[in-house]
Amino acid sequence: MTTKGRLPPVRRVGILAKTGLRAAEPHLREIGAWLAARGVQTVYEAATAALMPPADDRMVGDVAGGVDMVLVLGGDGTLLSMADRIGEAGTGIPILGVNFGSLGFLTEVTLPELYPSLEAAVTGQAHVEERLMLSATTLRRAAVFAKHIALNDVVVTKTARSRLIELSVSVGAEFVTRVRADGLIVATPTGSTAYNLASGGPILQPSVDALVLTPIAPHMLTNRPIVIPSTAAVRVQPLMGERDEAFVTFDGQAGFDLEAGDEIVIERAAAPLRLIRPSTRSYFEVLRTKLKWGER
């Protein structure tokens, strides 16, 4: 579900660049000077600061807290990692994503649009969209084993050595089905254009308050994607024999092997991601550009 609002004026900006993105170095210096000229402080992530020449007066720290917004330079994967960190920290810091390649679904600001977008953000003229996030709790032997926040999806898959895996899926208190497949994707509307789309799942506009469950290469043709309300918890339990192996990932950023009896409980996170969208480009325009709709 997407709601919109205005971003308050910004006094402190955190900056994160894609790891090892050397092409960002001149832009990082220029952005720092541009913000300083407007009285805005900058805080650089340590790995981002390492891309630049040393400077005694440069502030380096954890940009998931203590700033008014985070500027991400890279691609959608870089923004995902930052979104998950902010979600885990519970700080609700808004993110402005700038893509160093082509247009991204999340990093939809291109380099030529960088400074007009940054101007709109720091002066409080930019719009902020709230995007639904997932909270995933993995239970092992009736106790909490791990907790993760995800913006795009939670994915349970077989490992390379496994055949199909069988998954028991429940929504709320109701058993839904058993899925025999390579895996299962539980995706948000934001994540519907990621792995879900590649696996044949539907695209959900971000304003839709729902989740989509998409089997990956199901054994039965009747196992099809299904869209459900975001208000109910999804429970996924791998039904594993001695030779079966399963793995769970969260936004493709973190993951671990599952054991027999494990259960992943996936529900709407308490707080959404706040995504800064300074441009007038619509969601459908992004889809047309990224997916090349109407081109021959």
Molecular structure report:
The protein is an alpha+beta fold. It has two domains: 3-132 and 272-291, Rossmann fold (3-Layer(aba) Sandwich), CATH 3.40.50; 134-268, Tumour Suppressor Smad4. Helix content is 18%, strand content 37%. It has helices spanning 25-36, 46-49, 76-89, 114-122, 195-198, 283-291, and strands at residues 3-6, 12-17, 41-44, 69-74, 95-99, 109-110, 127-131, 134-140, 143-150, 153-158, 165-171, 174-181, 183-187, 210-216, 226-229, 234-238, 246-250, 254-258, 263-268, 273-277. The strands form four sheets. It has a six-stranded antiparallel sheet. Strands 15-14-13-10-17-18 form a six-stranded antiparallel sheet, with no helix packed on it. A five-stranded parallel sheet has the order 3-2-4-5-6, sandwiched between helices. Strand 8 (134-140) and strand 9 form a beta hairpin. The longest helix has 14 residues, at 76-89.
Distinctive features:
296 residues; alpha+beta; Rossmann fold; Tumour Suppressor Smad4; 2 domains; 6-stranded antiparallel β-sheet; 6 helices; 18% helix; 37% strand; globular
Furnish the topology, listing elements before pairings.
Elements: E1 3-6, E2 12-17, H1 25-36, E3 41-44, H2 46-49, E4 69-74, H3 76-89, E5 95-99, E6 109-110, H4 114-122, E7 127-131, E8 134-140, E9 143-150, E10 153-158, E11 165-171, E12 174-181, E13 183-187, H5 195-198, E14 210-216, E15 226-229, E16 234-238, E17 246-250, E18 254-258, E19 263-268, E20 273-277, H6 283-291
Parallel strand pairs: 2-3, 2-4, 4-5, 5-6
Antiparallel strand pairs: 1-7, 7-20, 8-9, 8-19, 10-13, 10-17, 11-12, 11-16, 13-14, 14-15, 16-19, 17-18
